[in-house]
Write a structure and sequence with these properties.
The complex is a heterodimer of chains A (113) and B (110). Chain A is mainly β and 113 residues long. Chain A has no helices and eleven strands. Classes of the chains: A mainly beta (113), B mainly beta (110).
């Protein structure tokens, strides 16, 4: 158990809908990262927050947004969902911003029908 | 942007065999990790190793930052070692993005 929790574990929804994925980092970690893993794209970095501030942005679509709250948990919002958004979404956390070990949560499997 | 290449893409081993997985990267990095994704999808951190050598039981890793590669050694492989091994790096320039390689898929036969 990495200490990073993600909810829900599974999510099935329809095209055009909006969903929210939640992540709680390990105790003491200030950075939260979001990743998408799909069969055709592999593991893709989406976004990083450090202590509530956006730190780095990867290949995150404009339909997706994220935030980190004062208690350091984070949410990833996916809207206007398309079939291609079906994937495993991972959250990771680390103590610092750059030169730190990232610990991954169990992931949320999103299926868009 | 930085390119991360892992080899071999697939590997089949008999239980008890040793193996070496390689990760090449095209630019200098300040962070390099090895992960194991088990058949249930869980990503397990193996090593944080931007440079040098580390060992943990049957696994060890070496990163030669000046030559831009890292190696993961698995000795006396077990069936539970099956899964996908990923290398992930953060380049020194271009922001704080983490870039994953495509992975090496390992299957260990009993």
């Amino acid at each position: 158990d990495s200490g990073v929790t993600q909810t829900p574990k599974h999510l099935i929804t329809a095209t055009g809908q909006r969903v929210t994925l939640r992540c709680s980092p390990r105790s003491g970690d200030l950075s939260v990262y979001w990743y998408q893993q799909s069969l055709d794209q592999g593991l893709q970095f989406l976004i990083q927050y450090y202590n509530g501030e956006e730190r780095a942005k990867g290949n995150i679509l404009e339909r997706f947004s994220a935030q980190q709250f004062p208690d350091l948990h984070s949410e990833l919002n996916l809207s206007s969902l398309e079939l291609g958004d079906s994937a495993l979404y991972f959250c990771a956390s680390s103590e610092g911003q750059v030169t730190d070990t990232q610990y991954f949560g169990p992931g949320t499997r999103l299926t868009v029908l | 942007g930085i390119q991360v290449e892992q080899s071999p893409p697939d590997l089949i081993l008999q239980e008890g065999a040793n193996s070496t997985l390689r990760c090449n990267f095209s630019d200098s990095v300040n962070n390099l990790q090895w992960f194991h994704q088990n058949p249930w999808g869980q990503l397990i951190n193996l090593f944080y190793i931007p440079s040098g050598t580390k060992q943990n039981g049957r696994l060890s890793a070496t990163t030669v930052a000046t030559e831009r590669y890292s190696l993961l050694y698995i000795s006396s492989s077990q069936t539970t070692d099956s899964g996908v091994y990923f290398c992930a790096v953060r380049p020194n320039t271009g922001g704080f993005k983490t870039i994953f390689g495509a992975g090496t898929r390992l299957f260990v036969k009993a």
